[in-house]
Amino acid sequence: MIGGGPPVDGVLTLADGHLEAIGRLLARHGLSMHCVATDAPIPGSYHGAPEAGVVGTDVWVRLDTPVHSVLHEACHAICMDGERRRVLDRDAGGDFDEENAVCCLQIVLADQLPGVGAARLMDDMDRWGYTFRLGSAARWYAEEADVPRQWLAQEGLLAADGRPTWRLRA
Predict the structure, then answer these.
(1) Where in the sequence is the domain holding 42, given as residue range(s)?
(2) Number of domains the chain is built from
(3) Is residue 168 part of a domain?
(4) Half-sphere exposure (Cβ direction) of 24: Cα atoms closer than 13 Å
(5) How far apart are CA 16 and CA 147, in angstroms?
(6) Is residue 142 part of a domain?
(7) Sorting pLDDT into bands at 50, 70 and 90, what band is 165?
(8) Does residue 68 form part of some domain?
(9) Over the stretch 103-128, which tens digit does the pLDDT of each residue have?
(10) Is 170 within the bounds of a domain?
């Protein structure tokens, strides 16, 4: 699952009115979101602007940053252990299971955002260039996300009913 690349028409961005809602959602996890000027580089961005960046518990964005990118980078900070989070700057690392959990959690969190939702986020993920073995984010989520959901539950990030616990992985 890889993103990156130039902006794609029709992909939801923070400029579409999602800045405040996403900021509140991230704050529930103990993360802070910082918005830089539209022409500024984004601190901690792995793929470069307009993709979100992450440094510790700080998520960096611009108004042209896609919603899926903000959620993806935030979910890296949520899903990694505290030791890695303390030194996090740009490259979240992690293994295959954690990356799958990150993608799963970003979809779960999208359903907490008015005007976004899981279906729209998965469509944006596909348009942006995320790659899934089954060909689409929606098909992956429907057919193969049970293991990532179990991982998230085991780590205390999803409750038994599948809702976020609003915690960071210990």
Answers:
(1) 14-154
(2) 1
(3) no
(4) 7
(5) 33
(6) yes
(7) very high
(8) yes
(9) 999 999 999 999 999 999 999 999 99
(10) no
